[in-house]
Design goal:
The complex is a heterodimer of chains A (92) and B (261). With 92 residues, chain A is mainly alpha-helical. Chain A has helices at residues 15-26, 28-36, 38-44, 49-57, 60-65, 70-84, and one strand at 89-91. Chain A has one domain. In chain A, helix 1 (15-26) crosses helix 2 (28-36) and helix 2 (28-36) packs across helix 3 (38-44). The radius of gyration of chain A is 13 Å and the shape is globular. Chain B is an alpha/beta fold and 261 residues long. The longest helix of chain B has 20 residues, at 23-42. The N and C termini of chain B lie close together (9 Å). The chains are: A mainly alpha (92), B alpha/beta (261). Chain A binds chain B through residues 1-2, 5-10, 15, 18-19, 22, 25-26, 28, 60, 64, 69-75, 78-79, 82, 88-92, and chain B through 12, 14-19, 23, 26, 30, 55-57, 60-61, 78, 80-82, 124-125, 142-145, 181-184, 186-187, 215-216, 219-220, 222, 224.
């Protein structure tokens, strides 16, 4: 396993960042709080300022550089978009 | 006994389709799922043992099992507005975890973990009527270091032997694949040719070749989820695949496949 992999070992320094992305993906209540006041929601998890700024910008490259898991970045973004634009999905 | 084996794509866009997705393509994959559903009814399955990779839903970085068995009485989960629950075939699940450990696989088990959409999407579309209980089997695909394809294949061989010795009519289902790169800069350029070559090999009964593939190669080809297929193939010797569909979208190789048990 190398650093060139698409899916790399998530560094422990990014644990809280990944915890935040995980919560955006899977925790409906956290996502609702985030949509209401993102900074306050991220404050609950003790995110570092630099990590929080990257989440606020939705800056994938910066998030990955900080050690965010690509899948969590992807699905956190998708779930936020589903909340913001629910009518654009066809549910089967 | 083992009565059938299937692999099904589970990309969530098949369930909740955004405007970016080709509706006709999605419906063609749904048609292949409908064929699986009819086959499950014809096979008179008593249970579906479904091998999927949890998408960091049940298992976050707090605990990362390589191989896990869900052994509760039922399992449930959510995705978007979907709220789903399935009874677990508890005697079969217990046998799998107990005999799996007996055979040298240090399995993680859970009686309460939430069920990820990787399990739900195929079940949503293929669950026979009347519905049957399931046994969810997790293979870590997303959190490195993942189990090697060879280890998955060996676990699948043991799983096949355990299931074949049971009185129930069991269908094995692998959820996942094929090539896709969510969250990376390769998202819009999967390795469809790799998928096609692999499907051609599987049609010829060369499933054991997947056991020899490295984790690096799977990552490079956007196919980390094929560890679930490697697990399934371990139970099937050299059975020849019947490819119901291969539908490459702009970001995902969607395959639905059956193997004779």
């Amino acid at each position: 396993m190398t650093d060139q992999m698409h899916y790399r070992f998530p560094p422990a320094a990014a644990y809280r960042l990944n915890r935040c992305l995980f919560a955006l993906k899977s925790d409906d209540e956290f996502r609702a709080r985030f949509l209401k006041d993102a900074r306050a929601a991220m404050g609950e998890l003790g995110l570092e300022a630099e990590h929080a700024a990257a989440v606020l910008r939705g800056d994938r490259d910066a998030l990955l550089a900080h050690g965010a898991h690509p899948y969590l970045v992807f699905m956190a973004d998708l779930r936020l978009r589903m909340e913001r634009e629910p009518v654009s999905f066809e549910f089967f | 006994m083992l009565v059938g084996a299937f692999a099904c794509a589970h990309t969530p866009q098949l369930l909740a389709r955004p405007g970016t997705e080709d509706r006709d393509l999605v419906l063609r994959v749904h048609a292949a799922f409908a064929r699986v559903k009819r086959r499950l009814e014809a096979l008179r399955a008593d249970a579906i043992a479904i091998v999927a990779g949890d998408h960091v839903e049940a298992f976050f970085l707090d605990s990362v099992p390589a191989l896990a068995v869900y052994v509760g009485t039922e399992c449930r989960g959510t995705f978007a507005h979907y709220r789903y629950r399935f009874p677990i075939h508890e005697p079969l699940a217990r046998t799998i975890v107990e005999q799996g450990v007996e055979r040298g696989f240090d399995l993680f088990y859970t009686q309460a973990a939430p069920l990820d959409y990787a399990f739900y999407v195929p079940l949503h579309f293929t669950m026979p009527e009347p519905a049957v209980p399931i046994v969810p089997l997790h293979v870590n695909v997303y959190l490195p270091p993942q189990p090697t394809p060879r280890r998955c294949y060996e676990w699948g061989r043991a799983l096949g032997e355990i299931v074949r010795a049971r009185p129930e009519r069991v269908v094995l289902m692998a959820s996942g694949g094929m090539s896709h790169f969510p969250g990376t800069d390769r998202y819009a350029s999967p390795e469809f040719e790799y998928d096609r070559r692999l499907l051609a090999a599987l049609k010829e009964g060369r499933g054991r070749e997947l056991a020899a593939v490295t984790g690096e190669e799977l990552d490079k080809m956007g196919n980390i989820e094929l560890r679930t297929w490697a697990t399934l193939l371990g139970a099937l010797d050299d059975a020849k695949a019947d490819v119901y569909c291969y539908e490459p979208s702009w970001h995902h190789g969607n395959a639905v496949v059956e193997w004779p048990a």
